[in-house]
UniProtKB/TrEMBL annotation:
Protein name (database record): Uncharacterized protein
Domain of life of the native organism: Bacteria
Lineage: Bacteria, Pseudomonadati, Bacteroidota, Cytophagia, Cytophagales
Organism the protein comes from: Dyadobacter chenhuakuii
Length: 166
């Protein structure tokens, strides 16, 4: 049975963009390694709770894919499978919506953010400033990603795209 990972539809209350859409669902749909037709029932279920406006289509087409997520702790391993979901309303007080078929984790990297806000990624590219690339692959800008995490933070980058290498 797949573990569940929930994704935020909006930026959290403590973030400077509090309440604004993250567009993570659409960014994940652009990234998941499935035939796009397999996403149709998931998109229908999602849009049943969160209708979209036709004028948003062009904006959605311009979004870059989200190839990974960053989570606290060290509970994930390559080869594991997760079910991507969002809350249909208030978190923990509403049903979840599954937004895509189960996804296999290709790679996991350990990450830390120290008290000074320095982001440390334990990977093959140590010493390089790859934070812009990591943020983009996580569906965020560098600033938005840094504002997302409380310090200190210890966790993992959980990646489902086999072409991402750090």
């Amino acid at each position: 049975m797949a573990k569940i990972i929930t994704f935020s539809r909006t930026f959290p209350a403590y973030h400077p963009k509090s309440g604004q859409p993250t567009d993570f669902v659409h960014k994940i749909w652009k990234s998941v390694p499935v035939v796009k037709m397999q996403l149709v029932p998931y998109a229908e279920a999602y849009f049943e709770s969160f209708p979209w406006e036709p004028n948003e289509v062009e904006r959605f087409h311009k979004l870059l894919p989200k190839h990974h997520t960053i989570r606290a702790g060290h509970r994930w391993k390559a080869g594991e499978v997760f079910s991507p979901r969002v809350w249909s309303g208030k978190p923990y007080n509403s049903p979840m919506i599954t937004i895509a078929p189960d996804i296999t984790i290709e790679t996991v990297w350990n990450v830390e953010v120290d008290e000074d806000g320095c982001f440390w990624i334990y990977c093959n590219r140590e010493g390089e400033d790859i934070l812009d690339e990591v943020a983009q692959n996580d569906g965020l800008s560098r600033k938005d990603m840094l504002d997302w995490f409380d310090t200190p933070f210890t966790g993992q980058i959980i990646c489902w795209n086999r072409n991402i290498e750090y």
